[in-house]
Amino acid sequence: MFPLKDNIPTIRFPVVTVTLIALNVIAYFFWQRGGITLGDPSNPHFNENLVRYATIPFELTHSGEQCIPGADPNAQYVCSAAYGARYDLPPTYLTAFTAMFMHGGLLHLGGNMLFLWIFGNNVEDSMGRVRFVAFYLLGGLAATLLQVLVGPDARVPNLGASGAIAGVLGGYIVLFPRARVVTVIFIVFFFTILELPALLILGFWFVQQLLFGYFDLDTGGAAGGVAYFAHIGGFAFGLLAIKLFADERKRRQQIATGF
Q1: Pick from 46, 139, 140: which is nearest to 99 by CA?
Q2: What's the pLDDT tens digit per position in 97-139?
Q3: Where are the alpha helices (DSSP H) in the chain?
Q4: What angle do CA 93, 99, 102 make, to 5 degrees?
Q5: β partners of residue 193
Q6: Handedness of CA 216, 219, 222, 223 (dihedral sign)
Q7: Confidence (pLDDT) at 188
Q8: Which of 31, 77, 209, 237 could lock onto 67 through a cystine, CB 3.0 to 4.6 A?
Q9: Where are the alpha helices (DSSP H) in 128-197?
Q10: Which of 221, 226, 116, 95 is nearest to 161 (CA)?
Q11: CA distances from 141 to 25, 64, 98, 104, 147 (A)
């Protein structure tokens, strides 16, 4: 399933959502200097940024130790207290924030920004701009926390906005479960376009993350790939915290305008 748009109009222009999308795009192309494919090994700047600014669970659970790539590029990073001074790496806590604005490839970036645009503007409308910034960042931190708890010794970089965006999705499903989302459904070589309930689309996505996370438990995320538990953590945060941030009067106004 590939969502295209929902039927909840925005009351105000989504300044924060658009700004977050712009920051992610700028970070990928001008800060990471990323390209079309996932982490091109021939791009030293891109890979140096991974070492410096992506979140590595081992660093968060082993105070004072920093991790760098080993001799085998396909293996986990090697970690030591000595590498911090040698590579002039930023404080580990900072990577929990910088990693939210990094992506591993153009498809990774594009998919995340599409979901943020479709669902983020309405969540921003429900709570206002300042609260939405706090909600988004806290969702990202909750995502990182669960991923680290599941794989505290993982020595692979974690990056991407998907944990924070999962928090937005969790909030959206509570606020607008009856919203309709225009969605592309792919069936082998064919596709069709349907308007489906947000509850079905986002619920199905979350169940997918739970199942994939369960089958990924044997590695604890140590082998790399998709950080499913970050998605789960962010989504759970959104489910539990949205009522603390959203304004019920604004939500009712949005629903009345959309339906």
Answers
A1: 140
A2: 999 999 988 999 999 999 999 999 999 999 999 999 999 999 9
A3: 15-26, 44-53, 57-61, 83-87, 92-98, 106-127, 129-150, 162-175, 198-215, 228-245, 248-258
A4: 160
A5: 184
A6: negative
A7: 72
A8: 77
A9: 129-150, 162-175
A10: 116
A11: 20, 20, 11, 19, 10
pLDDT-based confidence at residue 87 (cuts at 50, 70, 90): low
CA distance 60 to 77: 14
Number of Cβ within 10 Å of residue 210's Cβ equals 13
Coil, helix or strand for 66?
strand
Phi and psi of 48, rounded to 5°? -70, -35
Q: What is the pLDDT of residue 219?
A: 55
Could you give the C-alpha distances from 46 to 31, 53, 161, in angstroms and in order?
8, 11, 17
What's the CA gap between 139 and 98, in Å, rounded?
14
* CATH fold for domain 2-258: Rhomboid-like fold (1.20.1540)
The rounded distance, in Å, linking the Cα atoms of 97 and 165 is 14
229 CB-near residues (< 8 Å, 6+ apart): 146, 147, 149, 150, 151, 213, 216, 221
233, 144 contact by CB (below 8 A):
yes
Other residues' Cβ atoms within 10 Å of the Cβ of residue 116: 24
**Which two structure tokens, joined as six digits, stand for 247?**
């304004």
Q: E strand or H helix at 3, and its extent?
A: strand 2-6
